Amino acid sequence: IEDLPFPTVTCINGIALGGGFEMCLATDYRVMNSRAKVGLPEVKLGIFPGFGGTVRLSRLIGVDYAVEWISGGTENRADAALKVGAVDAVVEADQLLDAAIGIIHQVNEGKLDNLARREEKKGKIKLNAMESMMAFEISKGFVAGKAGKHYPAPVEAIKVMQKHAGMTRDKAIEVEAKGFARMAKTNTAACLVGLFLNDQALKKKSSAWEKEASDVKLAAVLGAGIMGGGVAYQSALKGTPILMKDIAQEGINLGLKEAKKLLSKRVDKGKMDAGKMADVLNSITPTLNYGDFKNVDLVVEAVVENPKVKDAVLRETEDAVREDTILTSNTSTISINKLAANLKRPENFCGMHFFNPVHMMPLVEVIRGEKTSDRAIATTVAYA
Known about the structure:
This protein is of the alpha/beta class. It folds into 2 domains: 9-189, Alpha-Beta Complex (2-enoyl-CoA Hydratase, Chain A, domain 1), CATH 3.90.226.10; 212-383, 3-Layer(aba) Sandwich (Rossmann fold), CATH 3.40.50. It is built from 16 helices and 13 strands. The chain has helices at residues 19-26, 53-61, 63-72, 78-84, 96-108, 114-122, 129-147, 153-164, 169-184, 187-210, 225-237, 249-268, 274-282, 307-320, 336-340, 374-383; strands at 9-12, 15-17, 29-33, 37-39, 75-77, 89-91, 219-222, 242-245, 284-287, 298-301, 326-329, 349-354, 364-367. The strands form 3 sheets. The protein has a 7-stranded mixed sheet, sandwiched between helices. Strands 1-3-6 form a 3-stranded parallel sheet, sandwiched between helices. Helix 2 (53-61) packs across helix 3, helix 7 (129-147) runs antiparallel to helix 8 and helix 11 (225-237) crosses helix 12.
């Protein structure tokens, strides 16, 4: 693509990550939808770009930004990509083709020099020896400290960029390919690729279950505190109002404090405004009793990890909810069959184990008991 005898432009109208973005980098210019994303997230799989990504991106946007994008494995929005020069224009989806054709016309009219752009990507990185040493050595130290010794890909990516910095394209790509092959054979890469594939398979399986799920318009968590507050935060953030019940006001206060803390962090990072934070927080209703539980569709029990306590709380809750309400337990050690033994409707009961901290851990373990119905599993999976 990069050596075609005419100017080339890529229209990016969605998610261009990994090899998809590396292909985009081979063209002379890139036009991007304002809602699209680009990036090279290969380090998350224990590898780094192996189809020219480290070569072209480092020459296109400079070493500092390339190191940040590649070692961080970030997915970058259109405005960020335009700012660093990874793309040449950002437009709305219906303007992509016109914008791309406009760039071709500018090349044909002599207003843009696509051959100079190519030579820049195919040449050496424009740093002298001192600048190169400072850029790469400082980056390696910083990234190594952040990634840790068991996660070598980010640092290895920087080493490869440093090695091919003084080379032209063909030799540089050969260096990249050899480095990529070495990383692809590591145990870390094998484990992370396996994890990725299993995650994709799990998402497909979850989607199939979700089709059979009942709607959860109102949830409840039993036991506030840090865990209960985390569950309440996650539920409310995803759009499902939730009751947060505890036997003591101190627990309620701690749960609300946890939810507020997590929401405040989102505001501080620019991911949410104060108005949205207030709306989410208001969808968490604290309570010391079961007064509103007749309206609850799904309950998450998250009290102390004690079989007798959980058994008592679950039986008490079962009497307070509708006959079709799903009960779940956040237990990590107690048998679901044992907890179901004293319930009137064991078919509506299963395990739903959140890992701590709830807001940071993408895995939720859904545990089927001997008598758990498909509806209970489907509804729990959809909610989780």
